[in-house]
């Protein structure tokens, strides 16, 4: 996976995962990155080096399915169901695409289970979340899993997913949360168009009385919010619900390009950041996003939320995403055992701003 010979480089800049550093020496020796050149010749590099990127929410097994834009979740789901089914072959292609963009770690939501073995093979590392959807109470017989969303999964299953994740020291579970008004309408009183979708796939809605509250409040009442939870989207979450997320320690995984495609709405990223909610980023799937480039996702977030410091998005791309997935060995430079990403950004004091200005700067792996 990596170069076996030792070498040392001195980039113009490095993002360590936590801070921006000017012209550090980074040495690859004995299978680990260190700041000690150990007598090696040091090669100067233009641009920026940073840890391999983290895409904390993707669906690798979903292909580039044409779906309607800004019509909401119901038409989008209809188009998705009419397209090609998820597959292991597409998961393999998606993993290769993510790696080619500089992603080293993913949180992949899978319905087939294909990505679990795939991510063990490398070079792309990750956490595979087996997704369960339905208003029934049947959990997988063993092992961790994740509910699709509060409005599509029985409360007993949501509780069981959270319980199994908490039983693992760095266990995680993920859930699509507060993405579309239809979700809120269903939880408020089985209103809107979502009941028809559930009946169409054979679900008995009498098994899930509506809680009469928002998605975040529903999860709070179930007692499942904690640092083990990844709340994906939070597009409509505001006010007291943002306070609830912050108090719980849950991670927010934002996918702004997907949100703009499906609903045209965006989460309150400024509110999340101001409350200290740990942030990560995801591309969602090729059915709602033009590519699996999480650096482009960060650029979109930077443009949409100027009130959030650029360092917060750099952190979300690296250390924040790794913490969200419970894989703290990733998202950092010193002590890393994975390749680093070199991006040829112009040398300037605002190098992170340039990194996230939307330009597709050339990038390559160092140490791979």
Task: Break the fold down into its secondary structure elements and pairings.
Blueprint: E1 7-15, E2 20-22, E3 26-29, E4 32-34, E5 42-51, E6 53-58, H1 73-82, H2 88-100, E7 103-110, H3 114-121, E8 125-132, E9 146-147, H4 155-166, E10 173-177, H5 181-189, H6 194-200, H7 215-222, E11 229-233, H8 239-248, E12 251-254, H9 256-262, H10 269-274, E13 279-281, H11 294-304, H12 310-324, E14 340-343, H13 351-355, E15 363-366
Parallel strand pairs: 1-5, 6-7, 7-8, 8-9, 10-11, 11-12, 12-13
Antiparallel strand pairs: 1-2, 1-3, 3-4, 5-14, 14-15
- Beta strand count: 15
Instruction: Specify the biggest β-sheet.
Output: 7 strands, mixed
Q: What portion of residues belong to β-strands? A: 15-25%
Q: Which oligomeric state applies?
A: single chain
Structural class: alpha/beta
Level of helix content?
25-40%
Discrete helix count: 13
State the distance separating the first and last CA atoms. Answer: 6 Å
CATH superfamily of the largest domain: Metal-dependent hydrolases
CATH architecture level-2 label of the largest domain? Alpha-Beta Barrel
CATH topology tier name of the largest domain: TIM Barrel
Spatial shape: elongated
Report the CATH C-level class of the largest domain: Alpha Beta
Order of helices and strands: EEEEEEHHEHEEHEHHHEHEHHEHHEHE
Number of domains: 2
Rounded to an integer, what's the Rg over CA atoms? 21 Å
User: Average pLDDT across residues?
Assistant: 95
Please mark out the parts with pLDDT under 50 across 5 or more consecutive residues, or reply none.
none
């Amino acid at each position: 996976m990596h170069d076996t010979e030792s070498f040392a480089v001195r980039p113009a800049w490095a993002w360590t995962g936590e801070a921006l550093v000017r012209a550090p020496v980074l040495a690859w020796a004995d299978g680990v990155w260190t700041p000690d050149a150990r007598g090696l010749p040091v090669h100067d590099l233009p641009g920026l080096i940073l840890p391999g990127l983290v895409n904390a929410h993707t669906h690798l097994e979903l292909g580039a399915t044409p779906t309607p834009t800004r019509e909401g979740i119901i038409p989008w789901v209809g188009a998705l169901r009419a397209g090609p089914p998820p597959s292991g072959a597409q998961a393999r292609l998606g993993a290769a695409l993510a790696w080619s963009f500089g992603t080293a770690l993913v949180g992949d939501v899978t319905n087939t289970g294909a990505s679990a073995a795939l991510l063990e093979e490398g070079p792309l590392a990750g956490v595979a979340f087996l997704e369960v959807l339905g208003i029934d109470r049947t959990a997988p017989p063993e092992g961790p899993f994740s509910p699709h969303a509060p409005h599509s999964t029985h409360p007993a299953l949501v509780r069981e997913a959270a319980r199994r994740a908490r039983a693992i020291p760095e266990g995680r579970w993920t859930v699509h949360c507060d993405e579309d008004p239809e979700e809120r309408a269903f939880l408020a009183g089985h209103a809107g168009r979502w009941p028809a979708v559930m009946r169409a796939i054979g679900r008995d809605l009498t098994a899930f009385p509506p809680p009469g509250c928002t998605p975040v409040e529903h999860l709070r009442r179930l007692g499942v919010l904690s640092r083990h939870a990844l709340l994906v989207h939070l597009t409509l979450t505001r006010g007291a619900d943002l306070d609830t997320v912050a108090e719980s320690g849950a991670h927010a995984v934002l996918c702004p390009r997907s949100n703009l495609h499906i609903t045209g709405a965006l989460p309150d990223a400024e509110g999340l950041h101001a409350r200290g909610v740990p942030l990560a980023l995801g591309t969602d799937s090729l059915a709602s996003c033009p590519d699996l480039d999480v650096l482009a996702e960060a650029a979109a977030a930077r443009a949409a939320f100027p009130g959030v410091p650029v360092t917060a998005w750099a952190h979300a791309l690296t250390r924040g995403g790794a913490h969200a997935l419970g894989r703290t060995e990733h998202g950092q430079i010193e002590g890393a055992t994975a390749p680093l990403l070199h991006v040829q950004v112009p040398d300037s004091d605002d190098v992170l701003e340039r990194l996230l200005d939307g330009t597709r700067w050339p990038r390559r792996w160092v140490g791979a």
